[in-house]
Predict the 3D structure of the following.
Amino acid sequence: MKREEEAVISQYAPFLDLMRKRRSIRRFEPRSVPPSMVEILLKAFDSAPLAGGDRGRRCLMISDREVIRLLAEKGQQAYLAFLSSIESPFLKEAMDNYGQNFFWFSEAPLIAAAVVRCPPSFLDTFCGPEAALFWGGHLSAAMGIENLLLMAPALGLGGCCLGGPLIVRTALAELLNFGPREELSLIAALGFSSES
Ligand SMILES: Cc1cc2nc3c(=O)[nH]c(=O)nc-3n(C[C@H](O)[C@H](O)[C@H](O)COP(=O)(O)O)c2cc1C
């Protein structure tokens, strides 16, 4: 390997280390995430690429324990109602197993909820569900959440992406104050890890 190449690689190794350090953390210490760290996480979220430069993406930081508990509780209730509507015992059991990791976040100190503004409806009219792929709103939200999860270990925090709860996205959205045409895209639970 050439010397300049080695120099470049050694310079970027700490960044790769940081990325490799990221793993899903699902248990947290009770202490809150300081507002200064919440600000940094938001900056990380906002620096992710954005499809079409559309400013419709934002990240809602929820640190109110009561709201977090309510989100997990209402989400679980809506999910159980959905589960009981499944007639096939086989499919119900499969769904139940799959859903075991959806609503564990009630004691998380911080929830980052990525919110996107839905695309103009003409896209749906012409392209149907395929529109979601090239519209890129949900993909942009996921990139923002990934940035935030990569920043977390640099702040001594841990976190976990939560896509499962979106199965009851509408029930969760009812508890949050969304603007017109806004939709919940992806959630992450964050805090100081209590995992060994
Ligand atoms: C889009 C997405 C959705 C996820 N949804 C959930 C979830 O609902 N519940 C959960 O506990 N983990 C969820 N995870 C975390 C994955 O289970 C986890 O990333 C995977 O097991 C790999 O482990 P690692 O993150 O420690 O590398 C999700 C991850 C991604 C990327």
In short: The first helix runs from residue 3 to 21. The chain has eight helices and four strands. The chain has a mean pLDDT of 91.
